[in-house]
Design goal:
Number of domains: 2
Order of helices and strands: EHHEEHHE
CATH superfamily of the largest domain: LysM domain
Protein name: LysM domain-containing protein
Domain LysM: 3-50, 59-106
Structural class: alpha+beta
Number of helices: 4
Organism: Chlorogloeopsis fritschii PCC 6912
Strand order of the largest sheet: 1-2
Shape: elongated
CATH class of the largest domain: Alpha Beta
Mean pLDDT: 87
Radius of gyration: 14 Å
CATH topology of the largest domain: Membrane-bound Lytic Murein Transglycosylase D, Chain A
Low-confidence stretches: none
Helix content: 25-40%
CATH architecture of the largest domain: Roll
Length: 108
């Protein structure tokens, strides 16, 4: 099942792929699905098809300085209030305490 995404100011295909697949180097999957010849040229407001991540049931993400679970959920799900999905998948006791370098499972 694929999803749709509307390009926002400052977006790149690399960042969009990182958001949806947890790996920016997967940008070519999005480019191919949308017939984008030049991956450096996308337009604000453009509707993109985001192909399904395949057989992956989840992704992983390494916590970076300044990250919060709300921001991570917003990055992967487009909605920060979905952070509880990450909390549950990782058995996090206190959602206000995550550590730089911590590997998180990001469920689909």
């Amino acid at each position: 099942m694929s999803r749709r995404y509307t390009v926002q100011p400052g977006d790149t295909l690399w960042e969009i792929a990182a958001r949806f697949y947890g790996d920016g180097s997967q940008y070519d999957r999005i480019a191919q699905a949308n017939g984008i010849a030049d991956p450096d040229r996308i337009n604000i407001g453009q509707q993109l098809i985001i192909p399904d991540s395949g057989s992956y049931e989840h992704r992983t993400y390494t916590v970076q300085p300044g990250d919060t679970l709300w921001e991570i959920a917003a990055r992967f799900y487009g909605d920060g209030s979905q952070y509880d999905r990450i909390v549950q998948a990782n058995g996090i006791a206190d959602p206000d305490r995550i550590n730089i370098g911590q590997q998180l499972i990001i469920p689909s």
